[in-house]
Design goal:
Number of strands: 2
Mean pLDDT: 92
Radius of gyration: 18 Å
Structural class: mainly alpha
Distance between the termini: 52 Å
Number of helices: 12
Order of helices and strands: HHHHEEHHHHHHHH
Largest sheet: 2 strands, antiparallel
Oligomer: single chain
Shape: globular
Length: 260
């Protein structure tokens, strides 16, 4: 299984490097540029939570009456990740999910949360993702990103869900972006202290401990099945390509604003 993990890591390495060095980071010069980036990124933060809860639903029993489901090892891994993502602590030590923490960061810096609020409200009321996208005016790149995640969710294949969770979503925040946010924070500490904290928690928890747990989970689910590993590699590559497209959308929006 270690060979299969290394095979996927080698296959996705060029795309991961493209994300880490994406041109969007170089055009974020001020608070207004950062707001646009966050308005795109929030969709990825939200559908990450949906992917996470799908894994919990598939790998544990979340219904009554309760029956043991799958391996206790995978149950332990996904439940530990859920606790950290769904009920972490904010700057004041209050329990919150990483999605809600990100939203608080958007509100603090003045980013527009109307679009994501309209999307979620409509989706909750209708259950129709396409209708919710149209109602909110979601950018096409964000739509495509979320739609791909939900294709994997709707595949009912836990090993694919775990693969894109592990290889396509974790540990993708480059040091240059963290430095950039820290530089903006020096001038606007009252505007981005929450977002800065979010990044720090993401790197500390998601990018380290959770990434190791997710890797164990994916290895357990793919096991010795070569076909599973091949599908996992393909899905991981597609997931990273969708992330690049999402960043491309944010880049075009930021550069368009700056040109005007």
């Amino acid at each position: 299984m270690l060979d299969q993990v290394e095979k996927i890591k080698n296959a996705i390495a060029p795309l991961r490097q493209e994300i880490v060095n994406h041109k969007v980071y170089g055009v974020i010069k001020d608070l207004d540029d950062l707001k646009i980036f966050m308005e795109y990124h929030i969709y990825a933060v939200w559908d990450f939570m949906s992917l996470l809860k799908t894994l919990q639903n598939n790998l544990t029993c979340t219904q009554v009456p309760w029956f043991p489901v799958g391996s206790a090892d995978t149950r332990h891994l996904i439940n530990e990740i859920v606790v950290g993502e769904e009920s972490d602590v904010d700057l004041n030590g209050n329990r919150t999910s990483h999605f809600e923490l990100y939203l608080d960061g958007m509100k603090q810096c003045g980013a527009d949360i109307t679009q994501i609020d309209r999307f979620l409200t409509q989706l909750k009321n209708t259950g129709n993702r396409e209708l919710a996208f149209n109602f909110a005016g979601t950018p096409i790149e964000a739509r495509n990103f979320v739609d791909f995640t939900f294709e994997i969710i709707e595949s009912k294949k836990a090993y694919l869900q775990a693969a894109i969770f592990t290889f396509g979503r974790e540990d993708l925040i480059p040091g240059m972006f963290v430095s950039l946010v820290n530089d903006i924070y020096k001038n606007f500490p009252e505007n981005i202290s929450i977002f800065k904290y979010y990044l720090e928690r993401h790197i500390e928890v998601d990018g380290d401990h959770h990434s190791h747990l997710a890797l164990q989970m994916t290895s357990m689910l793919c096991g010795a099945d070569t076909q599973f590993w091949e599908e996992a590699e393909k899905a991981s590559l597609l997931s990273l390509k969708k992330r690049i497209e999402l960043w491309d959308g944010a880049y075009r929006q930021i550069t368009s604003r700056n040109t005007i």
